Amino acid sequence: MAAPSGRWRRALGGGPTAVAVLLFAAMYAVYAARTETATTVFGITNLLNDGIVLAIASAGLTLVVLAGEFDLSGVAVIAVCNCVVATISTFGDFGWLVALLAVLAIGGAAGLLNGLLVAGLGLQSLAATIGTMIAAEGVALLILSAPGGTVADVIADSLTGDIRSVVPVAAVILAGLCLAWMVLKRTRFGIALYAAGTDAAAARLSGIDVPRTKLKAFVLAGLCYGAAGYMLSAQTGTGDPRASDALLLFMYASVAIGGTSLMGGRGGAFGSIAGAGILTVMQKMLFALGVAEFYTNVFNGVIMIVALVIGNASAAVAQRMRRRAA
Amino acid sequence: MSDSVPSVVGPSAGSVLDLRAIGKRYGATVALQDVSLTLLPGEICGLLGENGAGKSTLVKALSGVVTPDTGEMYVGGAPYRPRNVLDARAFGVATAFQELSLVPTLSVAVNLFLPQPGINRLHMIARRRVEQEAKAILGAHGIRDIPPATLVGDLSLGMRQRVEIVRALWRQPRILLLDEPTAALADRDWLFAQVAAAVGWGASVLYISHKLDEVRRLCGRCVILRNGRKVRDAAVAAMSDDDIFSSMAGRSVVETFVAVPPAIRPGPPMLRATGLRGPGVDDVSFSLAPGEILGVAGLEGQGQARLFQSLIGLHPLQSGRIEMRGKPAALRSPRAARRHGVVLVPEERKTEGIFKDLTTVANISLPVIARAARLRLISRRAERRLVEPITEAVDLSPRTLKLPIAALSGGNQQKAVLARALASGARCLLLFDPTRGVDVGAKQSIYRMIQGFAAAGGAVLFYSTELDELVHLCDRCLVIYRNRIAGEVPREALSQEHILALASGAGPSGQGAAMELAG
User: Fold this and answer.
1) Which residues pair with B35 in a beta bridge?
2) What confidence score (pLDDT) does residue A326 get?
3) Which candidate among A78, B377, B381, B464 keeps its CA 20 to 30 Å from the CA of A19?
4) Cα(A262)–Cα(B314) distance, rounded to whole angstroms?
5) Could you tell me the domains of chain A?
């Protein structure tokens, strides 16, 4: 009796995430019905490329949100990384590698700084990361005072194309991201992350090092922002200290649509990736339906609220099922 | 062992735990001062004191959650300075916390092994193995009704408390700290068996409780704290109840329960429920007269919480009728219930009872704040005038009114919750375990308030996990078993044995069947 009810529970426990995935599928179907190229390798690659920066950044942000904190610095870190890639990646044959290591180092360092401010000094994360965000925006402008610079061709070519014209590179990266999350979620760190976000006091009494857990979450998020900055560079082929400005609210929207509680402790990166997918495919769908571009944000907002409402209902149903089973 | 004078001599030979002159301050508040204490191998020592006496701070110092400002601790003769729960665990010190330290969004199994549940080669939690091990551990401690894969948040409070206790027990610690372990637990025999088992493997137990009968039953010696200081350290047998109470309270407490004549009034019942059915409520009928204190008893998780919540419309009922003073009443929401004068004092004070960031006076005046308004602005003076007579009825000191309610002891918080219920003009109070985790002094205030409320013609439905409260305060007692009323014990026959027999589903004659209830 325990086994099937357990499986049911697990299937339904991801209520809001399942809703996000279904919404994505529905919108993709509309988009595909109206656009011939949508289901071709080219069309899929295109869609994935449009969404992958948001997906990686939102997945990183999810870790911090799960731990019960906020991180606003993401977009600014992405901007810094973009400017750095546009500046150094064309130096020599291994410029792409140096740039990759550099963005990971920058992302990790920014995450470490955030983590030390929040977990070490006990500052409010919303306030502290506004500080690091503004500082990082300044750094981006110091590196490139105006859009410019060049991203090495090898980066753009290898990250935005397809493998043997069949598998989009972005799909591989996305799959890797999902796999990493699946493992991470089930590690001791993953458990500690949820525990710290749910009830920090109980987590501490249970022997979990809450500050250390939060610090790790910020650092991992920073690494994701670095990777997102690298992907952004691959797509734009140039540096722009303001290229990622619009991303901040979309990151939080992805996280929320995906069913992660902004209070911490509930949700996961799958949902955020699905949320990023929804926001990306929606642009395509509205375009395919011939909706004028200036309506797009109206739909963005409406869809976000719809996703939250359905996700909420589904979570309630899932909990009732669980309680009945227990 | 039976010296009543606190001694500050060196580490006693053979002691497992030795605290010397421990002190801890929070700002201006002295939580602990000069507290010395030893535990001998295999000893069960009671730690008594009112709320705010320093018991919990002492437990937290021993568990590595707070660091004492002064004094030294030794475990097995070695200096003991734990910085967190894991340090304490490494020394063989384990704690079942009063506030329950389980993480609600994780499974029972994972909680048992936190922070290091078993992992596989990929460093992922070995879910099946962890759950199997958890099942074995729970089973070894006589728990078969809690599936290890269940999320802790989905368990009843009593179940959570058992899991909390097992989490402290299963590693077989040398020193076991139990902080109010029966606060939410109806099946105390289960706990006593666990404590006996722990002593069996040589553990020393520090047993923190408000319940004197438990301390008498388990402990050879007891230490009493008052205002952060140790005031007694003596053999339990050498002290009378009054002796212990007055040491705790710093004043003489003559009797815990004061018998008053029944105040039941004739006429239509204040509240009559007929054939109530809904999830967790199975054909419940009862009638509550004005002036009556009607007890409700039941072992943990028999549907009593659901019944209380359903009565004020927190959960919809499928069928059944509720009448107030002979007229049908639709109590479909807490607000509607309040309009009819029916108010619930809920189980979880911290999350359901108080607004922790508001002052005490604001917490009390909340339902009637409009009456303190002039031109829609609240007059602080009018608010105080409104609240002060009520605080007297519940024995809440006026100086607590301006403080944030979070700064109050559990007992005073509960008095404020009761005061709010009275302020809202309740005529029918539904009290769900109102004395849980409350000190002796506050308990007596609450008893007086209940009796006074009934004497003035109010009706009380009173659930308690403490059977002696039901026996001494109630005019009758309903016993709930598996969502139904299993029986009613009239005033003449009210006794703990009687209630227990019904509560375990054995019927009025079969006593001692409480043990098999677990399933």
Assistant:
1) B22
2) 54
3) A78
4) 26
5) 4-325 (1.10.3470)
Is B86 within 8 Å of A187 when comparing Cβ atoms? no
| CB contact (8 A) between residue A205 and residue B101 | yes
Closest CA to A45 of A176, A179, A225, A166: A166
Nearest 10 degrees: Cα torsion B415, B418, B424, B425: -110
pLDDT score at B3: 43
Q: Nearest chain B residue to A194 by CA: give it.
A: B105
B123 and A183 within 8 Å at the Cβ level: the answer is yes
**How many CA atoms are closer than 13 Å to the CA of B413, on its beta-carbon side?**
25
pLDDT of residue B59: 92
Instruction: For residue range A210-261, list pLDDT tens digits in order.
Output: 999 999 999 999 999 999 999 999 999 999 998 778 899 899 999 988 888 8
List alpha helices for B394-503, DSSP H. Answer: 410-423, 440-455, 467-473, 496-503
Residue in chain B lying closest to A320 (CA): B154
Buried b (16+ CB within 10 A) or exposed e, B240-251: eeeebbebbbee
Predicted confidence (pLDDT) at residue B377 exceeds the cutoff of 60: yes
Q: What is the CATH number of domain B17-252?
A: 3.40.50.300
Look at B115 and A204 and tell me if their CB atoms are within 8 Å.
Answer: no
| C-alpha to C-alpha distance for B174 and B40, rounded to whole angstroms | 11
Residues from chain B that touch A193, judged by Cβ atoms under 8 A, are: none
**Average pLDDT value for residue range B170-185:** 88
Alpha-carbon distance of A252 to A65, in angstroms, equals 9
Q: How far apart are the first and last CA of chain A?
A: 11
Q: Is the pLDDT of residue B155 over 50?
A: yes
Query: Any idea which residue has 């009025």 for tokens?
Result: B508
Predicted confidence (pLDDT) per residue in A258-282, tens digit: 888 889 888 899 999 999 999 899 8
Q: Which tokens belong to B436?
A: 């849980």
Burial per residue of A150-175, b for 16 or more beta-carbon CB atoms within 10 angstroms, e otherwise = ebbebbbeebbebeeeeebbbbebbe
d(CA B517, CA B515): 6
Residue written as tokens 């529905």?
A: A26
- Ranges of residues in chain A whose predicted pLDDT is under 50: 1-6, 8-13
Q: What is the pLDDT of chain B when averaged over all its residues? A: 85
Give the whole-angstrom CA distance, residue B83 versus residue B88.
8
Chain A residues lying within 8 Å of B147, measured CB to CB: 2, 326
Give pTM, 2 decimals.
0.75
Q: Identical fold at B17-252 and B256-341+427-504?
A: yes
Beta bridge partners of B377: B374
Specify the pLDDT at position A8: 45
Contacts of B155 in chain A (CB under 8 A): 326
Class of domain B256-341+427-504: alpha beta
Which residues of A lie inside 8 Å of B (Cβ-Cβ)? Answer: 2, 6, 9, 183, 186-188, 190-192, 194-195, 198-199, 201-209, 265-266, 319, 322-323, 326
Contact between A288 and A35 under an 8 Å Cβ cutoff? The reply is yes
ipTM: 0.81
Question: Mean pLDDT over residues B266-284, rounded?
Answer: 91
- Name the pLDDT band for B13 (thresholds 50, 70, 90): low
Instruction: Report which residue type is found at B179.
Output: D
How do the domains of chain B map onto residue ranges?
A: 17-252, 256-341+427-504
